[in-house]
Input
Amino acid sequence: MSPLSSYTLEAPDLSSSRAQTDAGDDSTETATPPRLGTPEQSTLDSLLRAVQATNERVDKVKCSHSIQIVGLQGQLSEARGDATNLRNEMALDRLAMEAVQKDIGAIHGSIVYLKGCIARLAVESFSSAAMPVTAQPAAARTVVPERAPAPEGPRMPVPDSAADATLMDRLLATGGNLDLLADRLLQGQKQQLLEKLKKHPIGAALTLDVVIRQPAATNGCS
Output
């Protein structure tokens, strides 16, 4: 028997070597995560913190802008309400102004009417004062007894310069009472008429309180 026969030829295990090769390839292809304390991990942490800080700032800005928008909306609503109230007040002011203008027109009409009445009374008083003595026959001359003046209501204080006062001043002095103003104007005309009659030649024979014109009786006697 030859010495080579004592040795057994064994084939190499290719499957185990192939498995080791594959395992080596897989280990090289898989990325190894960075370890704690390495520069790569520090960079990632700083980037993460920066992103988180940016997100927080964005959230704060959004919240602040939302609050400002709500406040502006409230101010806009209040401004609209104020504008509506102002328009309503202006409309009421226009109505009040129109009413005041109507009242002023009515007062002017009353003043014109009073001026016409005063002018008519003045013409009548002067025409009566200028009537000739011969127009009244001797038989028609009668003495009219003086009568007690009728009681008058309370009078408002008259200004000292009543003679120079305008009609509006006299109206204001009576407190806006047109009846009292007319009575005072008539009283003033009456006093002027009596003064003129007293100075007239017939004033010595007559004592007059009220002069009544009777055209029909005068014409019949003449």
